[in-house]
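user: can you give me the structure for this one chain? tokens are fine.
assistant: on it. calling the predictor now.
[tool input]
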Amino acid sequence: MNTKSLTTVALAAMLALAGCATSGKLGEAEKLALYQAHAGEPVNSFGYFGSINGWTPLGDSALAVWTKPREAWLLELRGQCPDLSFAPVIGLTSNMNRVHAGFDKVIVRSPGAMNIPCYIGQIRPLDVGALRASEKELREARAEEREAAKETP
């Protein structure tokens, strides 16, 4: 087994154990750790043509942005981004169809928010296939734990 596989297995086990003490969903820290485990080395920028296919907040200082169904990026922000976890919509700034670390921003768009720009500190590509497989394994492990808990008095 290679180092990446061992890391993934260890992370999955850690998250599964952490889930034993909580209800069904991953906490923000666990979810961020899962995404970080499936992120590649930092890159300077990525192609962006004006629309986001989806996004997932990962606490108040990181998020995952899908630019295509099988292409996603982990954006780690410079500091906290107010209302990120509760925003219905976000936007990204770009220059010449590229989003650059250290230059471009995430704009949180929510009613009553001041739309404060949140600077992107680091961009890392996500291995979407491996991320989805790990999420599926965690869901299955939690379902098994719930069933086992029902069976024991």
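assistant: here you go. The CA atoms of residues 51 and 67 lie 7 Å apart. The chain has two domains: 1-38+127-153, 41-126.
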